[in-house]
């Protein structure tokens, strides 16, 4: 009887031990699964952070401003404004003629010396603008050669360059005869000279 009781108690202890070991295995397995899931979640978080970090670097690289080369400004030269005269007026007496001295005549032996109109120091009256030319809208430029004697008076005039309109040319020649100049002195002596006086006819 005592032997049977001892056997039963031993069997119960063994059974309890086996059950206890099974419980330990189950608890250990569940704990390992939780650790695996936690490690997996941490790995996903790290990968996500790494993936998020790369685009930020790319964005920061793209957002860098590119250097802009300075544009060189070309210097613009100022063009002179031409002087315009109105109806009945003409160019200033000190304006140089655009014709060369060789084409204007003079310079040969016995001919009067050709000088500029500014050198002649003349008083030039304003020419008369023909009424018919005004009505017809005629404009032009006439160059008149003045033949100046030793006293500074104009002896005669000649047409150096025509405006293409006879009325304007004749008005310029008439005005040229009314010009008065100072005697031109060379080597202490007054000499005869010629000069070109331009007349510009322009309607207002």
UniProtKB/TrEMBL annotation:
Pfam families for this protein: TonB_C
Name this protein carries in UniProt: TonB C-terminal domain-containing protein
InterPro entries on file: TonB-dependent_transducer (IPR051045), TonB/TolA_C (IPR006260), TonB_C (IPR037682)
Span list, region Disordered: 55-112
Alphabetical GO biological process terms: protein transport; transmembrane transport
Keywords: Cell inner membrane, Cell membrane, Membrane, Protein transport, Transmembrane, Transmembrane helix, Transport
Record-linked PANTHER family: PROTEIN TONB (PTHR33446:SF2), PROTEIN TONB-RELATED (PTHR33446)
Signal sequence coordinates: none
Organism the protein comes from: Polynucleobacter cosmopolitanus
Membrane topology: Single-pass membrane protein
Similarity remark: Belongs to the TonB family.
């Amino acid at each position: 009887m005592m032997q049977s009781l001892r056997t039963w108690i031993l069997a119960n202890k063994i059974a309890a031990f086996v059950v206890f070991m099974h419980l330990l295995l189950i608890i250990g397995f569940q704990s390992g699964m939780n650790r695996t899931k936690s490690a997996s979640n941490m790995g996903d978080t790290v990968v996500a952070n790494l993936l998020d970090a790369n685009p930020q670097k790319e964005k920061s690289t793209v957002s860098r401003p590119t250097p802009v080369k300075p544009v060189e400004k070309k210097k613009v030269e100022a063009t002179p404004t031409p002087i315009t005269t109105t109806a009945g007026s003409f160019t200033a007496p000190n304006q140089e003629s655009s014709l060369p001295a060789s084409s204007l005549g003079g310079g040969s032996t016995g001919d009067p010396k050709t000088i500029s109109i500014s050198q002649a120091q003349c008083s030039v009256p304003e020419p008369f603008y023909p009424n018919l030319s005004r009505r017809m809208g005629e404009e032009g430029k006439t160059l008149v050669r003045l033949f100046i004697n030793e006293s500074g008076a104009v002896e005669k005039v000649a047409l150096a360059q025509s405006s293409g309109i006879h009325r304007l040319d004749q008005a310029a020649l008439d005005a040229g005869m009314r010009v008065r100049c100072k005697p031109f002195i060379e080597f202490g002596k007054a000499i005869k000279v010629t000069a070109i006086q331009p007349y510009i006819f322009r309607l207002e």
